[in-house]
C-alpha cells in the first residue's frame, strides 16, 4: 500500500516559498509543489493568477470571519477539498468550468451530507480478516 505513496515523484513534496501581495502587503507563503500546482489548476479555471486567487481567498475568508493564523494550512485544505469535491463529482473535472460559476451553496450542502455519511460509516464495525505480516 505505501509504495503507491512513497514511490511518487519527490518533487511533489518539495517546499517552495512564493512572495505575493495581499491587501497591499508583500508576504510569503511556503507550500509543497503539489499544492502550488493544485492552486494553479484552481486559479486557471477562473482566469486568475495564483497570487490573485490567494488574495481573493484571503479577503473572502476574512470577510466570513475566519481566523487565518496558519494561512498555509488553510490553502492546503482548500487544495484537498478541491480534489475531493472533484472525486465526489461535486465539482466538474472539466477545466473549462469556472469555479466561480458553480452553485457553492448546493455543493457545500452535498459535501456536508457526504462527510456525515462518511463519519457514520467509520462507526460501523468492519468485517475484516486480521492482517498478515510477511517476513522481509
TrEMBL record:
Q: Which residue intervals make up region (Disordered)?
A: 115-136
UniProt organism field: Ochrobactrum teleogrylli
InterPro entries given in the database record:
RHH_dom, RHH_sf
Tell me the Pfam families matching this sequence.
Answer: RHH_4
The residue ranges of the Ribbon-helix-helix domain are: 16-83
What protein name applies here?
A: Ribbon-helix-helix domain-containing protein
List the taxonomic lineage. Bacteria, Pseudomonadati, Pseudomonadota, Alphaproteobacteria, Hyphomicrobiales
